[in-house]
């Protein structure tokens, strides 16, 4: 039915099957949209946030998707600026995933603010000393860059590409992509970092606060570095998932291997930095403010020391070791386990840096406060996931995302 | 965001921050303008017509 | 350098709250709500989302009879100065919607500018900031009693104690008409200070040696406003928030409850710096 739109020489499932998928995820999407409208119309009283939890599920989701979407800038940097040419076989998908992650982040932010109609104040009345201002500017600019990187892909659709103007535009945009990729990496460095800075600068919150250099707390660098390390893992994770669902090999093993290896090294070095940071925080920063490490992880029903171990060891060191060994990378089950664990690890880190910061009391006569999101918060957090799946389905069906697909499946 | 809003101060932080922003936006702007102009010229010269690749 | 020149004339309004005198009656909370048009909910049982610019906390020493002791601690916004006006909350606001005033030391909140990102709430360790989760609704007849000097706030923004800034403005207006630029100590007092039946709250200019707050707290401006009086302490002094609300108590456990200390830390030594 839609075969004229499908890239030449590749097989896709029947249109009926595709439509059913779209309808199912479309339903989930509509549920999220309903919750979103409720929140916009009735206000944030629709959530379970409160005066202790100014930041909650949404900000975590925001930080999470941006970290996972970090694969786009890092792969782009490796491919266009550093010149790892093989990565051209996965960069399209990385860009698409990044595009989805960043558009989701912007959407969530638009739902999250108390006065959405005033969102532009963050630009107009910008306080350049605030980490959040830096986030807003860099995020929007980088989203523009991702859109620019995604456009040529759309233009390469079989039918659109027949129009000479679009064909030429796609070609010309590819020509200068290195410049956009470099700008994207520059912007990403700052917004990934400033997202880390958001928690790191809170000197009233000893759990979050970190020393640093100049205006940047250590979390600034840790967040950028971890996004570079864990972002590609998410790209690999989604690629593997797409391969499993479509039942096709889409990217050659050497490409996967290269990205996994780079990711492993970045992760390894990140973890060393993270361990040093944690050690310094536990033995110098926190005691100077009257806290023992264990104070951060006790007297409450949820946040135990397990969370630190899960983040650094189980979802950090273990996947890093797998990715660093050729055997681990070549064993598809091990590789998949490693990238999945890594994704969980970075999400855990962002959770801790948002939710645990809010949960922990600072005044001696204050208490830990726990929080469970309302269904409206959950629905609006699932909304971008459904949107992402739909966009991936459409893009995978109609755009030549995987240059090696035809060769691998002929 | 602009020097005419009252919270603006001509200090180092504003110059670095806004400098960085203008720098990034300029590159993106010039890049896209170049692409579009070149595409118009190419298309007028009949490039990319018919069965390409 | 500009700051230093200004510093001589600059005022630094602050409070000293005598915890030995506070009975926990809550008059300050009520007075504050009435003075500042603070909205309330029909059901106020969930304290996690109700607005109390001034909140009285109950502290206990955790011991059993006969050593059991309690203390009430009223907590307004501390109007933290941080380092040179770098207050925890002001420094993070992306939209410049909250500001540190170097002339009065008051941390303001610009309601029409705040877009409700709530970053400032996360930054404040004292939980002095509150979000308007609902539109403010007053029972019909009580709207007549709203203060005309304080604008009510809309849904979706953050608010907090302003040290009754409108009173400062009114006092300054009056002084200006009378050809003065300096206020008398009693010309500008917050609502809670005046409401406290025990007289536990003292308010004034910490930089002015003639004011009672200065005499009680003896702030050491060279060291971030640290109190010079041994019985006076500030909440979470060690974080460096440099608050302008001082507390006073003759009981050591109360003073110790003001900050976090490691178990083996010598509190007395630490507290004396
Ligand atoms: S007490 Fe909280 S709201 Fe008040 S100035 Fe300090 S950090 Fe800001
Ligand atoms: S909630 Fe309002 S005052 Fe607080 S940081 Fe956001 S914009 Fe600023």
Could you walk me through the main structural features you see in this protein, from its secondary elements to its overall organization?
The complex is a heterotrimer of chains A (410), B (53) and C (273). By secondary structure, chain A is an all-alpha fold. Chain A contains 15 helices and two strands. Chain A has a single domain (15-408), classed as Formate dehydrogenase/DMSO reductase fold (Up-down Bundle), CATH 1.20.1630. The model of chain A has no long low-confidence stretch (mean pLDDT 94). Chain B has 53 residues and is mainly alpha-helical. Chain B is built from one helix and no strands. The mean pLDDT of chain B is 85. With 273 residues, chain C is α+β, with helices and mostly antiparallel strands. Chain C has a four-stranded mixed β-sheet. In chain C, a hairpin with a 5-residue loop joins strand 9 (219-220) and strand 10. Chains in contact: A-B, A-C. Chains A and C meet through helix 5 and helix 6 of A and strand 2, helix 3, helix 4 and strand 6 of C. The structure holds iron/sulfur cluster (2 copies). One iron/sulfur cluster binds next to helix 4 of chain C.
Give the domain tally of chain A.
1
Number of strands of chain C: 12
Q: State the end-to-end distance of chain C.
A: 28 Å
What is the radius of gyration of chain C computed over CA atoms, rounded to a whole number of angstroms? 19 Å
State the helicity of chain A in percent bands. Answer: over 70%
Low-confidence segments of chain C, given as residue ranges, are 1-8
Structural class of chain A, please?
mainly alpha
Q: Could you please say which CATH topology of chain C applies here?
A: Alpha-Beta Plaits
What about the largest sheet of chain A? 2 strands, antiparallel
- Strand content of chain A is under 5%
CATH class of chain A: Mainly Alpha
Mean pLDDT of chain A, as a whole number? 94
User: For this entry, what is the oligomeric state of its chains?
Assistant: heterotrimer
The hetero molecules present are: iron/sulfur cluster
What is the CATH H-level superfamily of chain A?
Formate dehydrogenase/DMSO reductase domain
Query: Helix-strand pattern of chain C, N to C?
Result: HEHEEHEEHEEHHEHEEEEHH
